[in-house]
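User: C-alpha cells in, sequence out, please.
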C-alpha cells in the first residue's frame, strides 16, 4: 500500500496536509450532517483516488469507522491501491444484484488499516451512469450510513460525464481535487460553477500539486474552505 502515504509515512509533509484536511472537514461538520463525502475533479489523473484513499486513511487514524467506495466504474483504481485480488467483486456487481440487501456486506473488504473498509468498483458495466443514479445505490448508501461514521466516495471526473453529478445528489459534501499541472484554472472554475449550479455542498478544494523531488512521495495538498 505504498500510495497510502498517511499510513506509511504519517509525518511526511503530505501526511500532515491530509490530516489537516481531515481536521478541517471534521470541524466543518457542526450540524453533524456530514456522513457521505464525494471526491471528484475536473479531469482524470488529478489524484482523486490517491486523495480519497489517504483521506479515508486519515479518518481511520482518528478512530472513525470509515468506508471507502470506488464509484469510478470506468477506471476504478482503489483495487490496485489496496492490493485487492482480481476475483473480488465490487460496486457494479452489487448494484445489479437483486439480493443486494442480504449480500452487500460480503462486498466489503477489510484492509490492513484498522477501521478502514473498502468496496472496489467491480466489473466494467455497460451503463455506469445508470447504476450510479439508481434508487438501489441510494438505498445501499442508506444502509451503509448506519454501519459507518464516514463514507468516502471516490468518483469519476466532472468534464464530459454525468456520473459525478448523479453521485453528488446522494452525497452530503463534495471535495474537489485540482491539479493545476494537469487541468487549467479555467477548467477548474467551470467545474466549480457546474457543481454550484447543481446545488452541491462544496466542502473545499484540495490543490494537489506534485513537487519535483527525488523522493516520489514528497508531495503536498493544500486545502481551502470554500468561504
Ligand atoms: N499528491 C500526490 N502525490 C503523489 N502521487 C500522486 C499524488 N496525486 C496523485 N498521484 C499519482 O498520480 C496518479 C494519478 O492519480 P489518481 O489518484 O489515480 O487520479 P484520478 O483518480 O484523479 O484519476 C497515480 O499514480 C497517483 O499515485
Ligand atoms: Mg481514480
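Assistant: Sequence out:
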Amino acid at each position: 500500500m505504498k500510495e497510502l502515504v498517511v499510513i506509511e509515512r504519517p509525518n511526511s509533509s503530505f501526511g500532515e496536509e491530509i490530516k489537516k484536511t481531515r481536521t478541517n472537514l471534521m470541524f466543518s461538520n457542526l450540524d453533524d450532517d456530514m456522513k457521505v463525502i464525494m471526491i471528484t475533479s475536473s479531469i482524470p489523473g488529478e489524484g482523486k483516488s490517491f486523495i480519497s484513499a489517504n483521506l479515508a486513511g486519515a479518518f481511520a487514524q482518528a478512530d472513525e469507522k470509515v468506508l471507502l467506495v470506488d464509484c469510478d466504474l470506468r477506471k476504478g483504481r482503489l483495487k490496485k491501491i489496496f492490493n485487492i485480488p482480481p476475483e473480488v467483486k465490487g460496486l457494479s456487481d452489487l448494484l445489479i444484484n437483486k439480493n443486494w440487501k442480504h449480500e452487500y456486506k460480503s462486498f466489503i473488504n477489510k484492509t490492513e488499516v484498522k477501521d478502514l473498509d473498502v468496496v472496489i468498483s467491480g466489473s466494467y458495466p455497460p451503463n455506469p451512469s445508470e447504476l450510479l443514479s439508481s434508487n438501489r445505490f441510494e438505498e445501499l448508501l442508506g444502509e451503509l450510513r448506519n454501519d459507518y461514521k464516514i463514507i468516502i466516495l471516490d468518483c469519476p471526473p466532472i468534464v464530459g460525464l454525468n456520473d459525478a453529478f448523479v453521485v453528488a445528489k446522494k452525497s452530503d459534501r463534495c471535495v474537489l481535487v485540482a491539479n493545476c499541472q494537469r487541468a487549467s484554472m479555467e477548467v477548474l472554475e467551470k467545474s466549480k460553477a457546474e457543481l454550484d449550479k447543481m446545488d452541491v455542498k462544496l466542502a473545499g478544494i484540495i490543490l494537489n500539486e506534485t513537487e519535483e523531488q527525488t523522493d516520489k512521495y514528497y508531495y503536498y495538498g493544500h486545502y481551502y474552505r470554500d468561504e
